[in-house]
Specification:
heterotrimer; A alpha/beta; B alpha/beta; C alpha/beta; A: alpha/beta; FAD/NAD(P)-binding domain; Alpha-Beta Plaits; 3 domains; 7-stranded mixed sheet; 8 helices; 28% strand; globular; B: alpha/beta; Rossmann fold; 5-stranded parallel sheet; 17 helices
Chain lengths: 443, 645, 137
């Protein structure tokens, strides 16, 4: 099949207009965007389904990226804009794929668009609703560091930059409705089911962060000054809420900070024996950024092995070590909280005789690992999408066709197939798009 | 002159506004002539601000656009598109870099950073005033790609490009395909054998009508630019006819006596001068190494009817639109004496060890005739060095550990000592590390700054080091074989390849990508992609992924059969041209010719050949040439604004 | 960085950078927060061999104390002869400067590769202090 030259072709099936796309991309993170853009640039039509209010995935919420220290938002937003604006890409945000049924050479796909209670086409992103809304809840995009309203723009560089109403927390007071200039708030909005036909599928649904509460001896959720790495990431972004790094319990600027690597990785006891590939490097990066934000603070990184394997990574690690960040090979047994909120780490000092030791810190950052999204196989109604032994989407021909899965015409990109950093995700997505393109040509 | 310019000053979150007083910048430029609107934005690149700009251009009828934000390398295309969406010519947009060359460069002095930003923005406004609307030229492009190197990455990229409908020239300098992986048989993390992988890729390569494989071929010279390159390829003769008589060639091989060290086995074995690198080498045609024939030349002449001895180097030129460099890597070669290499008998590199495994008889691992019962690995040889190769070679930990596991399926129990600096079995490969420990392998860790020593102790090659896992205790082990786990370096001819294609080289000497995060397979040279280990150490699967990514980028570039050229071209003012011809001499692209215009000699620029370098501007004695986008008005206007307070 | 006294004779430098090679290095200097005098202003052009002598002379006429050409060197995407060509250009302008009684040392050129952030910063600091010295002599 040649690439569709016109944008999107309409087909009539059973009297209803069903739109046909060359490819469905599940997930609008950096992997999904790269795959969709590649296909679109090769002339294929794409429908992208993103479960969140905005595309951009996890990368758009990062501060800076290793090892170049580029501002993450600055390099992601052009990709997001390009994706949103590409004539060959249709995007459904706040939507989920409900079911995919293979029918010969096509996949009948049912997508649910959930109500955001704001008419997307009319919203100008003026934020008046946000100002008017009296409800304040924790902001999930800031990993609960600060609050947000129930009527809100998800985050500053959201794409589309359209408000949403958090109906669970909304009191239905109507304040937002009254101030909205284009009158685009609509509380009667219902779930909408959209049926489409697609000729191929790319799974780029990304990963889950490990929930640090699953290791109770680290005290996350109980000791306020124990935070996870994404929370630190949000304290370090250019739009950081406090303009510095503060510890949550008393707002004090920490003098010494410890990183606990392999939280939820390389740990059979919590069922994840593999390495998450990114935590060493993001911790090292954060350590450098902390030294910029808090020049007087000491940072100690407790590690099992430093996985600085990618291009420029080892050099970055050595640079960080030379900047004065301390690296201690040691497994943290548990963390205790003192009355003043300081934290006592109990660890095995492997390189110094392996004796149990303790050390006290103002703040502890848990370098949480990544886990697979495990609901993907459920989407496929009449075919079996197999997972590998670690619950990632199984690659059936890893060496030669790395995007191939157990279903012909379904490909996997990025962290849906295993832990990966950003460049590896880009390569994996590029690969999945190339494989999809040649599959479509063979159809 | 533009009269209604919109100016946007970006805070970039706080990347800019932390050091540059953006309000002050706004105040300093808002009343300048020609400026009709100035705004401060949080993130100019965000979709909503872009939309706002589009609306402003339309509603305020702007005729020029200035965004003072980050480097144009990041967002010039973004805001040119904003201009287009607003109905403005994209070349009436000017990006001012107040981040990389403003707030960040002068974060030590916010006052001066602000002053500099003000001058830069003023200059940007001035340039916009004089900017002209320019149109891109569209030229036909070749729907063909050259892939350099027929290893796994090269073959995979070529197959995919052929599948996408492009013509592909796959150029391999060796006489056999497969690259480095052919030297191995057991691969890491998969059951598949290397020879199977190579065979199935080679079969696919052969099956494509629009894919031409050149063996014994090197890229010599390239001219032109994206969409229309001309690549000259030199093809060395194999000296064996394509319809060769297998029996006769076998007979010839049998009669040949001269032996030379076999490079494929790192000199561990010798080969004849009529040879295949290894029995399963593909294509299944031997090659005659005529240079080293020695006395065998007489035997070769006896068989000349079956050979192709008169064939000379052949040079051909192909038209292509894009290139994928997939030239792979070499193993790091330790210096003589480095950890006992080439001085102590039982010290070998990891890549040699892989050959030793393949060359060992069934059931017995042998080296130099001796049984090997124990192996000591020293990791990070040629990688993670304080001086020299600072980079991590990425594949070695996993492959060394994986080999310690797979070897025990083929030979009697062999004991492994792993003397490491770092173990980097990232991701799912972690389980191998765990399995090695459970198999009884012993791990020792040495300090980053304290390399182990290999020496002869009581007649045995011995590794001595301080083991951090046992409180820095000095430990010596004397295994039967000491394996230096050597990393990857670029192919020995990387400089030559880089010169031919003008490919940028990074600090680690591998080819450098356009952006390490988001553009890992493109280079700053349009149309030149990099794939596989030529960009940096990679596993096979990672190489394949980058090869496929490069293929999709090449297809996106070429599938339409036409390419847009930047309108930054030289323009000759015929009223000033005196026909000196100096521009013709200066032009590196032969894009200028002399024409006769009614008796007057005038220079004329051939648009499709001009690359906009500006060399002609500098030499014209009559100042008769201008470069679009860099006219005297724009340049001198900027210079004046930069200095005028 | 400097006190008020020095501020008055803080020399102004015009830098010509090249889009693909030296400008990325100057960006990199910023990214790495390697500081250099803030009175160095950069204008980028496609190639250092394409700078018109009259632009340089214009800079001196309008009050720049120094002009620095961050040349492409052998990395030039247009031609390997770039260094020679830029060199010729600089000699030509040196001649023009002498005619106008401008010290030739006020125009400098150095090849700056795309990752040469540190050399660039060093050049800027040296040039800046040389120009300061010229001003006080």
């Amino acid at each position: 099949m040649e690439p569709t030259t016109t944008n999107i072709e309409k087909q009539t099936a059973a009297g209803v207009d069903v739109t046909t796309y060359d490819a469905l991309v599940i997930g609008g993170g950096i992997g999904g965007e790269e795959a969709a853009l590649n296909l679109a640039n090769m002339g294929y039509s794409v429908i992208m389904v993103e479960k969140d209010y905005s595309i951009g995935g996890k990368m758009v919420h990062l501060s800076k990226v290793f090892p170049t220290l580029d501002c993450s938002a600055c390099i992601t937003t052009p990709k997001m804009s390009e994706t949103i604006r590409h004539p060959n890409i249709e995007i459904l945000t706040y939507s989920e794929v409900r079911g995919i049924e293979k029918d010969g050479k096509i996949f009948n796909t049912s997508i649910v668009k959930k109500p955001r209670y704001v008419i997307e086409a009319d919203c100008t992103g003026c934020q008046l609703c946000e100002q008017a809304c009296p409800v304040v809840v924790q902001d999930q995009y800031q990993y609960d560091l600060v609050g947000r309203k129930a009527a809100y723009i998800p985050f500053s560089v959201a794409a589309p930059r359209v408000a949403a109403i958090d109906i669970e927390n909304c009191t239905l007071c109507g304040a937002c409705e009254r101030v909205c200039p284009p009158n685009c708030i609509d509380f009667t909005m219902k779930e909408e089911v959209i049926d489409v036909i697609v000729k191929s599928v790319i799974i780029a649904s990304g990963f889950e962060l490990f929930d640090a509460k699953k290791i109770p001896q680290y005290g996350f959720g109980k000791y306020k000054n124990v935070i996870h790495a994404m929370q630190m990431e949000r304290q370090l972004v250019p739009t950081r809420p406090y303009n510095t790094v503060l510890r949550p319990k008393d707002g004090k600027m920490p003098d010494n900070i410890a990183y606990v690597l392999c939280t939820g990785s390389r740990d059979k006891t919590i069922g994840n024996p593999i390495c998450s590939q990114v935590c060493c490097m993001y911790s090292i990066k954060q350590a450098q950024l902390i030294m910029g934000a808090l020049p007087m603070a000491d940072v100690t990184i407790y590690y099992m092995d430093i996985r600085a394997y990618g291009k420029g990574f080892h050099e970055f690690y050595i640079q960080t070590k030379n900047m004065g960040v301390e690296f201690v090979k040691g497994k943290i047994a548990k963390i205790d909280e003192k009355d003043d909120g300081d934290l006592v780490l109990h660890y095995e000092d492997i390189e110094n005789g392996g004796a149990p030791k303790t050390a006290t810190y103002d703040m502890v950052v848990l370098a949480v690992g990544v886990l697979p999204q495990n609901n993907i196989p459920e989407l496929f109604k009449n075919e079996v999408l197999e997972l590998d032994e670690f619950n990632y989407v199984k690659q059936t021909d890893k060496l030669v066709n790395p995007g191939m899965t157990t279903i012909d015409g379904v490909f996997v990109a990025g962290t849906s197939s295993g832990p990966m950093d950003i460049p590896d995700t880009i390569l994996s997505a590029g690969s999945a798009s190339a494989e999809t393109a040649s599959y479509l040509r063979r159809l | 002159m533009k009269q209604k310019i919109g100016v946007y000053i970006c805070q970039c979150g706080s990347n800019i506004s932390d050091y540059v007083d953006v309000d002050k910048v706004l105040d300093s430029v808002k009343d300048l002539e020609g400026v009709s609107l100035v705004k401060i934005t949080m993130f100019s690149c965000s979709d909503s601000t872009q939309n706002e700009m589009v609306d402003d251009i339309k509603n305020e009828d702007l005729d020029g656009l200035v965004v003072a934000s980050c480097s144009p390398k990041l967002h010039l295309p973004t805001f040119r598109n904003v201009a287009i969406r607003g109905g403005l010519n994209p070349y009436n947009y000017v990006q001012v870099n107040i981040r990389e060359q403003g707030s960040w460069a002068h974060s030590d002095n916010p006052k001066k950073a602000t002053e500099k930003a003000i001058q830069l923005v003023k200059a940007g406004i001035e340039r916009t005033k004089y900017s002209n609307a320019l149109e891109k030229t569209v030229i036909p492009s070749e729907k063909a790609v050259a892939v350099i190197g027929a290893g796994i990455a090269g073959m995979k990229a070529a197959i995919e490009l052929a599948d996408m409908g492009l013509s592909v020239y796959l150029i391999e300098k060796d006489f056999f395909v497969g690259g480095r992986i052919t030297q191995w048989e057991d691969l890491c993390t998969v059951e598949e054998l290397a020879s199977d992988t190579v065979t199935r890729l080679y079969d696919e390569v052969k099956s494509k009508d629009n894919l031409t494989l050149f063996l014994g071929a090197t890229a010599e010279n390239m001219s032109g630019s994206v969409g229309n390159f001309k690549l000259t390829i030199n093809i060395r003769p194999r000296y064996i006819k394509s319809d060769f008589n297998k029996d006769k060639i076998e007979e010839l091989t049998g009669k040949c006596k001269t032996l030379t060290p076999n490079e494929f086995d790192f000199g561990l074995t010798k080969r004849k001068i009529v040879f295949k690198t290894y029995p399963g080498a593909l294509p299944d045609i031997p090659v005659v190494d005529i240079k080293n024939a020695g006395d065998d030349i007489n035997i070769i002449n006896e068989f000349k009817d079956h050979l192709d001895l008169d064939r000379k180097d052949e040079s051909i030129t192909v038209d292509i639109g894009s290139v994928i460099l997939a030239t792979g890597s070499d193993p790091y070669t330790p210096k003589v004496g480095e950890l006992g290499y080439k001085e102590i008998d039982n010290v070998v590199t990891f890549q040699e060890f892989k050959r030793i495994i393949e060359l060992s008889p069934n059931g017995k691992l042998k080296y130099n005739g001796k049984d090997i019962k124990s192996v000591g690995y020293i990791y990070c040889v040629g990688s993670c060095q304080a001086e020299g190769n600072m980079y991590c070679s990425r594949f070695c930990c996993t492959c060394a550990i994986s080999t310690s596991l797979s070897i025990n399926k083929r030979f009697e129990k062999i004991r492994f000592y792993h003397v490491y600096k770092h173990i980097r079995t990232y991701g799912k490969q972690e389980v191998l590390y765990d399995q090695a420990g459970r198999q009884g392998d012993i791990f020792f860790k040495f300090d980053e700054d304290e390399e182990p020593v290999v020496s002869m102790v009581d007649g045995e090659g011995t590794i001595t080091f301080n083991d951090l896992l046992t409180d820095g205790e000095e430990i010596s082990v004397s295994p039967d074989l000491i394996v230096l786990v050597t990393g990857m370096v670029p192919r020995d001819d990387y400089k030559r390849v880089a010169e031919v294609f003008k490919a940028p080289i990074g600090r680690d000497k591998f080819f450098n990508e356009a952006h390490p995060k988001l553009r890992p397979v493109e280079t700053v040279i349009d149309g030149i992609m990099i794939a596989g280990a030529s960009q940096g150490p990679k596993s096979i699967s990672e190489s394949t992924k980058s090869a496929l990514s490069a293929a999709s980028k090449a297809d996106a570039l070429l599938h339409k059969g036409e390419i847009e050229l930047e309108p930054t071209l030289a323009m000759i003012d015929t009223s000033l041209c005196e026909g000196s011809g100096l521009c013709i001499q200066a032009c590196p692209f032969n894009a200028i010719t002399m024409i006769d215009a009614g008796g007057k000699k005038l220079a004329q620029v051939e648009k499709s050949a001009c690359k906009g370098c500006g060399w002609c501007l500098a030499v014209c004695p009559h100042d008769a040439i201008e470069l679009a986008g860099y006219t005297n008005n724009e340049m001198e206007g900027m210079i004046e604004s930069l200095i005028t307070v | 960085m400097s006190n008020n006294q020095n501020d008055q004779k803080d020399p102004k430098i015009l830098v010509f950078s090249t889009e693909k090679i030296s400008d990325p290095a100057i960006d990199l200097a910023g990214l790495l927060k390697l500081h250099y005098p803030a009175t160095a202003y950069t204008i980028n052009v496609p190639c250092s061999s394409g700078i018109k002598p009259r632009w340089i002379m214009h800079a001196f006429e309008k009050g720049f104390d120094g002009v620095f050409i961050a040349a492409d060197g052998t990395d030039c995407p247009y031609s390997i002869e770039c260094t020679t060509k830029t060199g010729e250009l600089v000699s030509k302008v040196h001649g023009m400067m002498k005619e106008k009684n401008i010290t030739p040392a006020r125009l400098k050129m150095a090849a700056i590769c795309s990752v040469c952030a540190e050399p660039f910063v060093k050049h800027m600091k040296t040039f800046h202090s040389e120009l300061s010295a010229m001003a006080s002599n």
